[in-house]
């Protein structure tokens, strides 16, 4: 804010100097004396080998839907070591990509050192470049500096120039957050969280004045063209910029509050959300870089004299925005959006270095997709294009040019998958690991967070633990240009986190609650489901929801297992209860159940994300013909393959599914049985009070409230017309 900046500039030089020296000493004490290393070699070769093995297992499907075995030697249908080493199996799960990802054009899997663009280093250096007069940025900067009011009202300036006090930081780290509710026309129910009391609840803008958005040039002119495809004729002529959803999301993003939006849908709103956060990220980077280039010119032209704080405009490292996305296709789309937003017209194309290489490594050949492959629409939308999940790429933007494959310490934006980050961050004790480039991230965007639950959530947690730490090496930084917030190690309080997911989940919520410290506060969309996915079940089926009582959340896993083997399984041991499918969301639970079934010598087969193609075919055939009474099926296998399992007569959900629509999808597989509707069909669901969110997504909020109060088993009968 202008008051704060005026106040700080009015302080005496001597006081500022003393403060700076003490902060410098603190910081320098943390730096290592070892030589700087910017190589991003991947030293996890054993993990890569395992990843390659399981990718081969789940490769292209061809005609597997026929249920015929591949022939050849007998497949044991599992990974032997998993019985003894379930921890190791879970750790490598994220990179074992059970979706048949295309890694043929990923050099990082084949060579030790990945490609980074060294050739354009000086051209994209922030330290040695100045504002170009003809770019329009220079005049914009002059206009801003002449109008102090306009300058101070820019959300970017307000957020980054705010000087926190020690007592405010202490307050944020010790006191609980206060919350308030608000209802917006498009987003619905919002909850605002803040520790600093003075921040009031934000109101939705019904119409957007583009000047109030403080978009940096050329975004004012390019955004309407780029976003035109999402604007329908229903949109008011007074708002030619945003869809109703984009307007409300950008309204929150532009205030630099953290945001959690759990209603992202790959089929409906995924791309318009992606465009909105790309606009915000690019706007932030252009403003930050313009400030640095402008100050370079001022420093060059200034008269000799003592340094002052006027030019503190940088972090300890250059990367400002980190974008976490699940697949290469997502990174490809983001880069294309950036290019479109930077190109004013056909004549003024921007120069993009390494574009051809990027298209080769992140693009996708449609001919590689297996023919006659029919999957649900949402599956097609999520797994479109190149679905390799191991990548990272640095992007540098300077005025009219973009540099792809920039070294991380010369990048403004890093686009990566959780696995791509995990392999460069490394683990404690590893010789080659690097996370200094995360020290000054100002915007963290985590898109499609729900997919990481299906990859390896540990990679996301590992990343969050390494965000905004003081760097171990200086990386050539000019400390006289570093903001005091970074020197004070307060950058986590300035970082904005944007979290987008297709669902509410306790693990995703914990990221938002435990790893977001933004001083401006947080906003979470908290709409409750009224109907639930059970209304989409198209077969006549009695649903029995069996409640298990656990003392606390840590004992749920053991309680569920004991409840299942003592109260549920005995009812299904009889040969009459054949064709029983047991749906298991957790891989740990799957391994435990599989081992128990083997020990008890039950007639069963099993399919998980590691099962080879031949094993899948045999298991499906045995189950369909009734040769195996039980089929254990993991949620991750269903997520990545979506096979229709035929022959189901009895269905047991060992736990409620992560994705609510999987419930109706699995139930509707009963239609695939030739006999048609059968009066003996059953569906049993195990749940506890700790499954409230998942339960509400399946049966609706009203039924959930009743079920949690009653503490009894609940019988629901769905007619197929609900």
Within CATH, the superfamily of the largest domain carries the name P-loop containing nucleotide triphosphate hydrolases
Count of alpha and pi helical runs: 26
**Strand order across the largest sheet:** 1-2-11-3-10-9-4-8-6-7-5
Q: Give the overall form.
A: elongated
Name of the top-level CATH class of the largest domain? Alpha Beta
Terminal residue distance: 54 Å
Short recap of the structure:
With 722 residues, this protein is an alpha/beta fold. Strands 1-2-11-3-10-9-4-8-6-7-5 form an 11-stranded mixed β-sheet.
Can you walk through the features of this model?
This protein has two domains: 155-198 and 215-299 and 325-366 and 376-525, Rossmann fold, CATH 3.40.50.300; 533-719, P-loop containing nucleotide triphosphate hydrolases (Rossmann fold, 3-Layer(aba) Sandwich). It has 26 helices and 18 strands. The radius of gyration is 28 Å and the shape is elongated. With 722 residues, it is of the alpha/beta class.
Task: For this entry, give a set of tags.
722 residues; alpha/beta; Rossmann fold; 2 domains; seven-stranded mixed sheet; 12% strand; disordered N terminus
What's the SSE blueprint?
Elements: H1 2-10, H2 13-30, H3 45-57, H4 86-91, H5 137-146, H6 148-153, H7 155-161, H8 166-174, E1 178-184, E2 188-194, H9 219-227, H10 244-253, E3 258-261, H11 270-301, E4 321-324, H12 328-342, E5 351-353, H13 355-362, H14 377-382, E6 392-398, E7 401-404, E8 413-416, H15 418-425, E9 443-446, H16 449-454, H17 457-465, H18 484-487, E10 496-500, H19 506-514, E11 522-525, E12 541-547, H20 556-572, E13 580-584, H21 587-599, E14 604-607, H22 613-625, E15 630-634, H23 635-641, E16 650-653, H24 660-667, E17 682-687, H25 692-699, H26 701-710, E18 714-718
């Amino acid at each position: 804010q202008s008051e704060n900046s005026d106040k700080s500039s009015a302080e005496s030089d001597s006081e500022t100097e003393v403060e700076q020296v003490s902060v410098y000493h603190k910081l320098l004490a943390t730096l290592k004396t070892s030589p700087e290393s910017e190589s991003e070699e991947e030293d996890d070769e054993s993990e890569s080998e395992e990843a390659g093995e399981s990718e081969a297992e789940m490769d292209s499907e061809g005609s597997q839907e026929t249920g015929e075995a591949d022939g050849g030697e007998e497949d044991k249908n599992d990974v032997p070591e998993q019985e003894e080493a379930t921890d190791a199996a879970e750790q490598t799960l994220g990179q074992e990509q059970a979706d048949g990802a295309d890694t043929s054009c990923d050099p990082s899997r084949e060579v030790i050192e990945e490609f980074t663009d060294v050739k354009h280093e000086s051209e994209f250096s922030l330290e040695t470049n100045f504002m170009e007069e003809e770019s329009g940025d220079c005049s914009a900067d002059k206009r801003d500096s002449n109008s102090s009011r306009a300058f101070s009202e820019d959300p970017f300036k307000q957020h980054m120039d705010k000087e926190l006090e020690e007592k405010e930081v202490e307050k944020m780290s010790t006191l609980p957050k206060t919350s308030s509710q608000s209802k917006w026309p498009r987003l619905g129910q919002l909850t605002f969280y803040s520790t600093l009391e003075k921040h009031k609840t934000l109101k939705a803008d019904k119409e957007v004045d583009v000047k109030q958005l403080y978009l940096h040039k050329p975004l004012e002119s390019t955004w309407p063209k780029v976003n035109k495809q999402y604007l329908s004729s229903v949109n008011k002529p007074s708002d030619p910029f945003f869809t109703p959803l984009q307007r409300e999301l950008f309204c929150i993003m532009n205030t630099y509050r953290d945001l959690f939006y759990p209603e992202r849908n790959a089929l409906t709103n995924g791309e318009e959300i992606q465009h909105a956060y790309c606009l915000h990220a690019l706007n932030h980077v252009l403003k930050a870089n313009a400030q640095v280039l402008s100050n370079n010119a001022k420093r060059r032209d200034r008269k000799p004299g003592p340094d002052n704080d006027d030019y503190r405009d940088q972090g300890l490292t250059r990367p400002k925005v980190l974008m976490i996305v699940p697949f290469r296709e997502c990174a490809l789309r983001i880069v294309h959006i950036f290019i479109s937003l930077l190109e004013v017209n056909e004549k003024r194309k921007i120069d993009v270095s390494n574009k051809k290489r990027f298209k080769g490594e992140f693009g996708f050949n449609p001919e590689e997709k297996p023919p006659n492959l029919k999957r649900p629409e949402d599956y097609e939308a999520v797994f479109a294009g190149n679905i390799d999940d191991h990548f990272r790429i640095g992007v540098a933007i300077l005025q009219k040019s973009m540099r792809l494959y920039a070294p991380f310490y010369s990048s403004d934006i890093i686009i990566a998958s959780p696995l791509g980050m995990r392999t460069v961050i490394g683990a404690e004790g590893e010789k080659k690991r690097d996370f200094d480039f995360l020290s000054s991230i100002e915007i963290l965007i985590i898109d499609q967070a729900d997919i990481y639950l299906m990859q390896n959530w540990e990679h996301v947690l590992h990343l969050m633990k390494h965000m905004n730490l003081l760097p171990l090496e200086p990386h050539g930084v000019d400390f006289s240009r570093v903001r005091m917030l970074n020197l004070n190690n307060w950058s986590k309080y300035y970082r904005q986190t944007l979290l987008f997911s297709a669902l509410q989940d306790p693990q995703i919520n914990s990221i938002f609650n435990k790893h977001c410290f933004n001083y401006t506060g947080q906003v979470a969309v908290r709409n409750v489901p009224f109907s639930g996915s059970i209304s989409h079940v198209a077969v006549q089926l009695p649903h029995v929801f069996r409640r298990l009582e656990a003392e606390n959340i840590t004992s749920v896993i053991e309680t569920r297992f004991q409840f299942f083997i003592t109260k549920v399984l005995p009812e299904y041991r009889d040969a009459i209860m054949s064709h029983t499918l047991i749906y298991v969301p957790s891989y740990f639970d799957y391994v435990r159940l599989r081992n128990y079934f083997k020990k008890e010598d039950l007639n069963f087969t099993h399919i998980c994300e590691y099962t080879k193609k031949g094993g899948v075919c045999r298991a499906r055939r045995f189950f369909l013909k009734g040769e195996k009474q039980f089929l254990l099926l993991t949620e991750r296998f269903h997520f990545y393959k979506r096979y229709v399992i035929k022959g189901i007569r009895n269905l047991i959900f060992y736990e409620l599914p992560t994705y609510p629509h999987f419930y109706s999808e699995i139930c509707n597989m009963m239609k695939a049985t030739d006999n048609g509707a059968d009066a003996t069909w059953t569906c049993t669901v195990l749940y506890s009070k700790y499954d409230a969110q998942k339960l509400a997504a399946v049966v609706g909020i009203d039924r959930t409230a009743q079920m949690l109060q009653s503490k009894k088993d609940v019988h629901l009968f769905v007619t197929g017309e609900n």
